[in-house]
Amino acid sequence: MMIKRTYLIIIALIFAFSISKGQSFKFAHVTDTHVGSGTGADDLRRTVKDLNTLQGIDFVILSGDITEFGADHELKLAKQILDSLQLPWYVIPGNHDGNWSENGANTFRRVFGGETFFFKHKGFMFLGTNSGPNMRMSPGQIPRENLVWMDSIFNANPDKNTPLIYINHYPQDSSLNNWFEALDRVKTRNVQLALCGHGHTNKMYNWEGIPGVMGRSNLRANKEFGGYNIVTIDSDKATYQERLANGTNLNPWAVIPLKNHHFESDKGSYPRPNYAVNKKYANLVSETWAFQDASDIGAGMALYRDLVITANTSGDIFALDSKTGKKKWSFKTGGKVYSTPAVSNGIVVAGSSDHYIYGLNAENGALKWKIATEKAVLGSPLIHNNTVYIGGSDGVFRALNVTTGQQKWDFKNVKGYVSTLPTFYKGLIIFGSWGNGFYALNAKTGALVWEWNNGQSNRMFSAAACYPVAVNNRVFVVAPDRFMTALDAKDGRVIWREKRDTIRVRESMGLSLDHKYVYVKTMDGDLLGVSARENHMEISWKSTLKLPYELTPSAISTNGKVVFVPSHSGLLSAVDAKSGRLLWQYKISNGMINPLLVVGKNGLICSTMDGKIVKLKF
Q1: Average pLDDT of the chain?
Q2: Tens of pLDDT along 30-57?
Q3: Which residues neighbour 262 within 8 Å (Cβ) at sequence distance 6 or greater?
């Protein structure tokens, strides 16, 4: 009996050891398919057809940029093609699926069933997360709700010895604003490999000791066939072999040892965001309160009495006590919200990617009215004289009664979708769209007064993210094509339009309180004041501020004495409006700063894309 019991124990130990080491298997790593681009759909069809001929492939991982623009029809086409795949497949979005998405990155979840995945296979765990950035140009960012989800997955799977393979679209470095939050989490486990796409090439990495692999794009590019990678997992190594969609296997190009790196014992020092600037200026600016949401926040804020009202990507419109930062009420919509709420007559108005515009009681968040649209509503509402002006993704710009939600008029000829806050100027409603359209509508009737086009064919260059600045009978815009343009407010005629290599404007701008300058922030981190009166791009004011490479489209704000400059890395800069001298800086987080809320002479409420809201006193 003792011999039999000993034998059974030995067999159990051998079995447990084999499970902990994992079993041999193969899977396909397909990435950057870009359905909607020139050959994207055909290249994916070829790859699916080729995969269906293979034996011994257990599943397929698709690591983002499934589509070119995250458009509804692109996502549906991609899903249709992938449904013909005769293997299990797992998919996450990339920046192209969310950053220029007409649906607010909401359709991806609906079409594919989610934006994350987790599964176990032959002794390994596979975990994939979204990468962002969603709807706002910035470095990538793993959504806050994905990190919370990751925590729940690990809590539900407490065995820390099971080998883990982590998948994200981006390299796990400063390409992501919050790379460290993901790495710190997976390093509590036996993470042995991390996979990504994004760079369209086969490449090996080391991310804080975690072996990393970037896979080639599925696109054919300038060649006859596209391709992907076959990954063979053995007990102690992962082998990457490129395969073309015509069935040609190329030589293996990477062999990565798989082992437990015991990161719990790692004493290495790795780059992390630096908050030393907060101590440097502690006598000039301080934090009154802070609130951390469980989701991303991609909207600005509105102030109603003692309430700060904003929204998040879990679909919540919610209010915080402006004195304490405590949550007072929350209303759930059916989709991600990127629309900055506006308040008037006790009604909060915001759009949602669930195809509705909402009017809520500002006191308690109770629903007063909601208006159905054909697609997501990503634009922010402007309320003027009891009228809500708001653009959607269905090619329609609407004017609604703020109290009842009743439609006053609509303009149905918008090219592309609207994600900006419109500007009211001398009876005109002025806004851009992501179809290279730029419009001035009669505020009373919705009739088109004039339309301007920047001449670009690529919608990525649209003057659609900036908040138009209107002053001195001119309308100023900046765009990703790096042009700044001054239009005649009366007829849309171009007064001047300039692009300079030394002044690389993009999407962030504002207006000085005295209306002398149009503030612009360049991609090289300069803050400039462009004359609001000259007939050319005259730099009339310049700050001493010098930021690193900078992308965030959030508007520049001022209280007249101080100019507040947001950044894509959570650093807020305050500049003297008269001299341009840097006064102070405050680092809120490492996420992109949303549109700011100036409160009185010495108060500011700020939020960042990673869900943090702070009230500052200066």
Answers
A1: 95
A2: 999 999 999 999 999 999 999 999 999 9
A3: none
| Neighbour count for residue 617 (Cβ, 10 Å) | 13
Q: What is the 3-state secondary structure (H, E, C) of 375-398?
A: CCCCCCCEEECCEEEEECCCCCEE
- pLDDT value for 3: 44
What is the C-alpha to C-alpha distance for residues 120 and 127, in angstroms, rounded to an integer?
Answer: 9
Q: What is the pLDDT of residue 22?
A: 57
Q: Are 129 and 116 in contact (CB under 8 A)?
A: yes
Task: Identify which of 351, 362, 359 has the alpha carbon closest to the alpha carbon of residue 402.
Answer: 359
Residue 342 in contact with residue 311, Cβ under 8 Å? no
**Angle (nearest 5°) at CA 522 between 547 and 485:** 165
According to DSSP, the β-strands at 494-498 and 428-433 are unpaired
- C-alpha distances out from residue 597 to 359, 543, 558, 601, Å: 21, 22, 10, 12
Distance CA 195, CA 164 (A): 11
**pTM listed for this prediction:** 0.93
- Spell 467-478 as b/e; 16+ CB within 10 A means b: bbbbbeebbbbb
Quick check: 113 pLDDT over 50? yes
- Per-residue CA distances from 524 to 51, 240, 497 (Å): 45, 38, 20
**Tokens of residue 574, six digits:** 């305050």
Residue 235 binned pLDDT confidence (cut-offs 50, 70, 90): confident
**Location of structure tokens 């815009």:** 477
**Which has the closest alpha carbon to 348: 335, 330, 323, 336?**
330
